[in-house]
Amino acid sequence: MAPPSWSRLTVRQRLTATVALLTTLALVAVGATLYVLESRRIDRAIESGISQELGEFRALRSEPDPDTGRPFASAERLLEVFLERNLPDPDEQLFAFPAQGRPSYQGEYDARLQRSAEFPALVRRLSTTGGTRTLRIDGHTYRVAVQPVRVGSSTSAFVVAHDVSASRAYLRELLVTYALLAALSVILVAGVASWSAGRLLSPVRRLRETAQGISDGDLGGRIEVTGHDDLSDLQRTFNAMLDRLEAAFAAQRQLLDDAGHELRTPLTVLRGHLEVLDVDDTEDVAATRTLLLDEIDRMSRLVDDLLMLAKARRPDFVRTRAVDVEALTLGAVDRARALADRSWVLDGVARVNARLDGQRITQALLQLSENAARHTHEGDEIGIGSRLHEGRLELWVRDTGPGVDPALAPTIFRRFAQGEDAHEGFGLGLSIVSAIAEAHGGDVVLDPTDAGATFRIRLPMEAAT
C-alpha cells in the first residue's frame, strides 16, 4: 500500500514526480558510468605516460653522449641529458636522484610533493629494485615510478611522478558541470511533464466534473470530445453511457408517471365500490366482488406487462439459438386461432433457420394477433407470415379491420398509447412487441395500407444467419 503522503497526491503530481524520479535516476546512472569510464581512461593514460617516459629513458642509455660522442661516463650525466631533452606531460614531473646531493627535476614545481618526507623515502626504498607505487600525501594521490640507473661505478635513480589528484580534478569539474546541467534538465523535464500530464488528464478532469454534475442530478452534461486517442475514446464512451442513462431515467420517470396514472383508476374504482358496498345485500356483495376481482386481474396484467418492459433492458432478456422460422410461423398461427373467432390465414413462410429467441418472437406475434383480434369482428381476416426480404427476416400480422388513425401512427408504440376505440388493456402490448424486436437488434413498423393494419417485425441480417 502506498504511503499516505503519496496517496494524497493528485494523479498529475504523481506522474510528474515519477517522471522526475526516473529522469534523475537515468542521469545519475549516466553520470556514474561516465565517472567510472573516465577514471579508468585517466588511469590508463597515467600508466601509459609513465611507461613512455621510462621507455624513452632506456632508449637514451643506448645512445652516445651528445657532447663527447662516447657512451655516457656517469649516471648523473645520463640523467642530465634526459631532463634537458624531455618535457613532462601535464601534472607530471621528472626527477634525477643522484647518489649524493640534491635531486634535480623537470616540470612544474609541486611544493606538496617535494617538501614531503614520504616522497624521498619511497625513492630510496625503490632505488635498488625499481617499481611503481601509489603515494598519498595530505590527501593527494601520486603515482611514482622509480628506475635505478648504474653507469660504471656511479648510481642514481630516474623518477617519474604523476599527480593523479590533479588529473582527476578535470574530471571532478566535468562532473560538477554535468550535475548542474542534470539538475536543470530534471527541473525542465518535470515542468514539461507536469504541463503534459495536465493536458493529457484534462479529459479525465472534465469527466470527473461531469460525473459530479450527474451526482447533483444533471443528466444533460456532456464532455466535449477532442482528439483521436484513447482518452478521446473514453470520452465518447462516457458520453454514450450518459445518453443511455438519460434515456433510461427519462423512460423510467415516464413509466412511473404513466403507471401511477393507470393504477390510480382501478384503485379509485375499488375504493368507490367498497365505500358504497351494502354488506347486508348479498346480491350487491356478489356483484361488487366480481367487479373487484376483474379490476384486480387488470392490475395484475398491468404489473406483468410493466415487469416485461423492465426486463427488456436486461442483456439476458433474449436467449438466441437456431430456430426453424417456418415451424415458428406455423406454431404462431395455430396458437392465434384460440384468441378469437376470426379467419386466420397463413400468408407465407420463410424456409430458413434463424438465430433468435423463438419464445420471445412467438410472444410478439401473439401480442400482435391479440391486438388485431381486438380491433376486428367475427369473420374478419387476420394473416400471419414470414419472409426474407432485402437481407432481413420479416414476420408480420395483418388484419382487415378499420386500420390505425394516421394521427396515432407516430405514437402507437409508446407505453400506454391507445387508439380511440380501445375498450380494454393499458396500451402496453405494442410497446412489448417493440422491446422484443429491439432486443434482437431489429424494430417493428406499421405498414401504410389503405385498409386494415399490418405490423411487421424486422430483424437484421445478423439475426437471420
Indicate the mean pLDDT.
Answer: 81
Work out the strand percent: 15-25%
Net shape = rod-shaped
Oligomer: single chain
Low-confidence stretches: 420-426
Give me the count of strands.
12
Question: Residue share in helices?
Answer: 40-55%
Number of DSSP helices? 12
Rg is: 51 Å
Question: Roughly how many Å apart are the termini?
Answer: 52 Å
Give the helix/strand class. alpha+beta
Give a short account of the largest sheet. Answer: 5 strands, antiparallel
Strand order of the largest sheet: 2-1-5-4-3
Series of H and E elements: HHHEEHHEEEHHHHEHEEHEEHEE
Structural account:
53% of the residues lie in helices and 18% in strands. It has 465 residues and is α+β, with helices and mostly antiparallel strands. The strands form three sheets. A five-stranded antiparallel β-sheet has the order 2-1-5-4-3, with helices on both faces. Helix 2 (11-61) runs antiparallel to helix 6 (164-200), helix 8 (230-275) packs antiparallel against helix 9 and helix 10 packs parallel to helix 11. The longest helix is centred in the N-terminal third of the chain and has 51 residues, at 11-61.
Show the helix and strand layout.
Layout: H1 4-7, H2 11-61, H3 75-85, E1 92-98, E2 104-106, H4 111-114, H5 118-126, E3 131-137, E4 140-151, E5 154-163, H6 164-200, H7 202-215, H8 230-275, H9 282-311, E6 321-324, H10 325-336, E7 343-348, E8 353-356, H11 358-374, E9 381-389, E10 392-399, H12 429-439, E11 443-447, E12 453-459
Parallel strand pairs: 7-9
Antiparallel strand pairs: 1-2, 1-5, 3-4, 4-5, 6-8, 9-10, 10-12, 11-12
Helix pairs in contact: 2-6, 8-9, 10-11, 11-12
